[in-house]
Amino acid sequence: MVRSLVALLVVTALIGLAPAAPVPKHLMPEEPLYHPVKKGTRWVYTDNDIERVYEIADVKPAKHGGSIVTVEAVTNTGRVLEEKLEVSPRGLVRLEHLGAPAASPVRLLRCPVQADKEWPFRTDRAVPNGPYIQGTMTATGPEDVTVPAGTFSAIRVELKATLFMGDTPVSDINVTSWYAPNVGTVKYTSTGGFKRELKSFTPGKG
Description:
Layout: H1 2-17, E1 42-47, E2 50-61, E3 67-75, E4 78-88, E5 91-97, E6 100-110, E7 118-122, E8 131-147, E9 150-165, E10 168-180, E11 184-190, E12 194-202
Antiparallel strand pairs: 1-2, 1-12, 2-3, 3-4, 4-5, 5-6, 7-8, 8-9, 9-10, 10-11, 11-12
């Protein structure tokens, strides 16, 4: 009787230690997109109390999966290209900013998010021996962030970098960005007291 009871306890313990069967790939939760991919999506931000409006003007399939999203700034005098992003379950990559294509695209967010894992980045020089920025980014979260548009569960990305003029370090730069699934940037703060907060968000229908 005692031996049978011991054997049962051992079997039960072994079952508890056995690895769980793998979840079929089609049942695994998909990594969310941390930026919208529908044409017509519109954000209204306050930049230190100055209102800015941005809208997705175009969406095209990316070569290796995901989407190439073109965002324009909407002004009183028309529209101006703000940036082009590659949006995919792998994260966010900036391909172009303010009309200047990036020879070395900048990864703004790496997914799936691995807490406290750094990745390097460097911006291009616009002219020979001109300024550039070099540093690292680190993602953590999700965490709740409250802005005028509401409260969002967002990933926080800390950027720590140095501005170089030629090859001479000039100043340190610290930037914190918060990205919410299917919304994009909901808050952004940087060295010098700059603060951007999402005031309203309208999903696109395209």
